[in-house]
Each structure stands twice: as C-alpha cells, then as structure tokens.
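Hey, I'm writing a tutorial for new members on how sequence and structure tokens pair up, and I'd like a real worked example in the thread rather than a made-up one. If someone can provide the structure for the chain below, I'll link this post from the tutorial.
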Amino acid sequence: MMVFRLTEKLAKKLKEEPVASKEPLRCDPYLEWYASLFRFNRAQYVITMNAASLLTVVDHGRGITDDNSYLRSVLPMIGEMLEKYDCRLIFQRVIAPNCGKIRFGKTTDKSALGSMNRMIFTIKCICEQEEISPWDMGLEVNKMIWKPIDYLTPVEAFKRMKRE
C-alpha cells in the first residue's frame, strides 16, 4: 500500500479527508510520501517528497483538483525522476505494483514536514534568482545536501534505502 501524507492545504484542494487513525499507517519506506501545496509569484505548486530519503518532485498546482488528478500527475513524475537517477527498477518492482492501493493520511512526522518546508523555502529562493520549471525545482533540491538524511543528497539517501 502506498501512503501519501497530505498537508491540510493540499487535502482541502483535493477535497480529500486524510485517514486519522489511532494506529499510524506504516509502509515500506519507498511507499511513504509527503505532499503539500505552496504558492510563488501567484502560481500554485504541489511538492511531493519521499518521507525517508527526501527525494522530491514538484508540479504545477493548476489543473490538480482532486485525488485522481493529483495521482495522474505525481505518479508518472516520480517514475520519471527515478528513471533519471537510475532507480527505474525500484519504481517498476516496488512502487508501480502498489499504485492501485493508495491511502491518504495526515502528516505525522514533524521532521519530514519541517524538511519539506525547508525545501519549499529553498525553491522560492532559487526561483527569485531565475525562473525555472517545476521539474527543475525538484532537480535542484534533489542535488542538495540535507542534514536530516545525514548530510546526503535525497538521491543518495533513496539509493541507500532498504525495504522493510
């Protein structure tokens, strides 16, 4: 089962009620992702980040109106990002088979949420210098070193992850 943990802002946009259970949704580290909505220069963007490795993809928020449009947008982007970083087999063998079993949960890990907020801040700083596409926003934060993942890049952390 794949889990997307949505911030309140994104959950409201998707008209989705994230699961709030007493028992947390646990899953394989490859299958747990955090997602949020942010604005920059009057445009909406959706950031989706792997909880364990901080590997990130960014997309335009326009046109994403419900859970189906979000998933139709983000899943191919995750696949393309993993292919770019030579992780195609992880997508094919682990993520793709679980795309039919998706749950939306509330954000529970304050560390992951803090990392995502730092990434959003970093993206905004980069975009103030030059105009870049959402795809390039993801590429930029994926090549930076982040303290929460032991001073690795998200790509290095993703490649080092092990299945539970």
